[in-house]
Amino acid sequence: MAPKKNETALAVAENFQLANRYENIDPELLAELQDEQADLDPESGISCLQIKIPSGTSSAYEVQTEDDDSEPMKKIEAVLVFTHRANGYWPGAYGSGDDQNKAPVCSSMDGKTAIWTETGEVRSCESCPYNDYGTAVDQKGQQTRGKACKNMRRLYLMMSGDPNLYLLTVPPTSIKEVNKQLAKIIGSGTPYTGIVTILSLEKAKNANGVDYNKVVLQKGQPLPPAVAAQAVAVRQRIKEQYKSVALTLDDYTAAPVEQTAGRAVDVSAEDFDDGAANGATFEDAPPASEAGELPFA
User: Fold this and answer.
1) Is 141 left (phi over 0), alpha (psi -120 to 50) or beta?
2) For residue 262, what are the contacts with CB-CB under 8 A and spacing of at least 6?
């Protein structure tokens, strides 16, 4: 008997595996690697490879490789292991500085409470004037309709058979739709750690006629229970350490392409699909009770 359409859609992604970098490695070699690792300076926090959203006409994500190169991917199939809001304020026009690794003057890792770097002052994002529309400035110093503070959402992803953790920063133009899709997944009774998430890009145009890429997030097949348990364990680990992954201007900078290399392309306030500004809310999925071993060391 042929399967029904809904049964086909719900087929478990049996081939999806969260990889451990040291799985099946020779015990003696593993011991030597661990001994040499102990010789190095200890590092705290988590490390991620970056997934960038291109500007211009390209419709493929730029995925960082272990060789610090990049690989274009039109579609990414991964498990989303953690997500959180983030805000960053850089004075002056967006993209006006040469140092893309410059830390923001004020930053928030939850989109609610921020720290002003120079003074250590704690600020509320909700009442901060830089988080209001109409406070941004352009390259000529003219006031624009956007926010001076850049609202973002970070997605931490793991791909099948790949031990690396990947970080995709969702810009304001895609936040509302991404929130909507994640809330829809959770509302169906499925944790986002229990499915394959499919990411692609969709062309859009802002109020000024500038083309940009919009993040499209779709629900894929459910994961096998053992793999989902691994994803939950990874989520808990990241949730404890994600604040150590500092915000930089690079979070908000599109991957350069030939048509826009060296030029920052911002969007107008009318295209800022900012959930907070529109009264929408989104909460991370509650942790599951079962947790397996971490898929990476």
Assistant:
1) left
2) 256
